Amino acid sequence: SIMGAPNEEAFKDRVMQFEKRYLPEYLKQVGYIKTFWLEQYKEKLVKAWVDQHAHFGNTATSRVEGIHALMKSHLKKSTLDLFEAWRAIKHALLNQLSELRSNQ
Fold this sequence. Notes:
Layout (H helix, E strand, L loop, with lengths): L7 H15 L4 H19 L1 H4 L12 H13 L6 H21 L2
Helix pairs in contact: 4-5
């Protein structure tokens, strides 16, 4: 996929493949995707650019999804009492803080 391109060369190759597949039949649509998405947001969407920044393995499309996955991994089950849930959340936050400090 274009978004999964590991480097700029692969990105360019995949865009060319995309154009070969859909041009000239979908000229307006391809132009729109290139102009309003790929050219403007490739640094935020394409692996080649996204991986240049520290994201600590969080590649979810929203912060909420990332936090939800983090909490789920620490809570383990849905039947915890309030105290157990608080301990699990505290443990998750302390682990995240420790990881952030070690990467500075």
